[in-house]
Amino acid sequence: MLFSHLASIPRLHSVNLQTKNLTRSLPRVLARRNLHSESLEFSKVAMSTVNKTAHAFDKTRLDALLNRRFFYAPAFEIYGGVAGLYDYGPPGSALQANILAEWRRHFIVEEGMLEVDTTIMTPAPVFETSGHVARFADWMVKDTLNGEVLRADHLVKNVLEARLEGDKEARGVVAAPAAAAPADKKKKKQVKSTAMKLDDAVVAEYESILAQLDNYSGPELGGLMRAHAITNPSSGNPVGEPQQFNLMFASSIGPTGQHPGFLRPETAQGHFLNFSRLLEFNNGRVPFASAQVGRAFRNEISPRAGLLRVREFTMAEIEHFVDPLDKNHTRFAEVADIELVLLDKYVQAAGQSTTKRMTVGNAVKEGVIANETLGYFVARIYEFLLKIGIDKTRLRFRQHMANEMAHYAADCWDAEIQNSVGGWTECVGCADRAAYDLSVHAAKTKQPLVVRQALKEPVVEERAIAEFDKKALGKTFKGDAGVVTGAVEALDEAGLMRLKGELEQGPATIKSDGKEFTLQPGMLTIERKTFKTNVREFTPNVIEPSFGIGRILYCLLEHSFWSREQDVERGVLSLPAVVAPTKVLIVPLSSRAEFDPLVKEVSLRLRKAGVHARVDDSNTSIGKRYARNDELGTPFGVTLDFACASRPEPYDDPPVRLLVPPFAIVAHASKLTNGGAFRRERDTMDQRIGSIDDVIAAVTELVNGSIDWAEACQRLPAYDGVQAID
Amino acid sequence: MLFSHLASIPRLHSVNLQTKNLTRSLPRVLARRNLHSESLEFSKVAMSTVNKTAHAFDKTRLDALLNRRFFYAPAFEIYGGVAGLYDYGPPGSALQANILAEWRRHFIVEEGMLEVDTTIMTPAPVFETSGHVARFADWMVKDTLNGEVLRADHLVKNVLEARLEGDKEARGVVAAPAAAAPADKKKKKQVKSTAMKLDDAVVAEYESILAQLDNYSGPELGGLMRAHAITNPSSGNPVGEPQQFNLMFASSIGPTGQHPGFLRPETAQGHFLNFSRLLEFNNGRVPFASAQVGRAFRNEISPRAGLLRVREFTMAEIEHFVDPLDKNHTRFAEVADIELVLLDKYVQAAGQSTTKRMTVGNAVKEGVIANETLGYFVARIYEFLLKIGIDKTRLRFRQHMANEMAHYAADCWDAEIQNSVGGWTECVGCADRAAYDLSVHAAKTKQPLVVRQALKEPVVEERAIAEFDKKALGKTFKGDAGVVTGAVEALDEAGLMRLKGELEQGPATIKSDGKEFTLQPGMLTIERKTFKTNVREFTPNVIEPSFGIGRILYCLLEHSFWSREQDVERGVLSLPAVVAPTKVLIVPLSSRAEFDPLVKEVSLRLRKAGVHARVDDSNTSIGKRYARNDELGTPFGVTLDFACASRPEPYDDPPVRLLVPPFAIVAHASKLTNGGAFRRERDTMDQRIGSIDDVIAAVTELVNGSIDWAEACQRLPAYDGVQAID
Question: What InterPro entries does the database record attribute to this sequence (chains A, B) (predicted)?
Answer without folding.
Answer: aa-tRNA-synt_IIb, aa-tRNA-synth_II, aa-tRNA-synth_II/BPL/LPL, Anticodon-bd, Anticodon-bd_dom_sf, Gly-tRNA_synthase/POLG2, GlyRS-like_core, tRNA-synt_gly
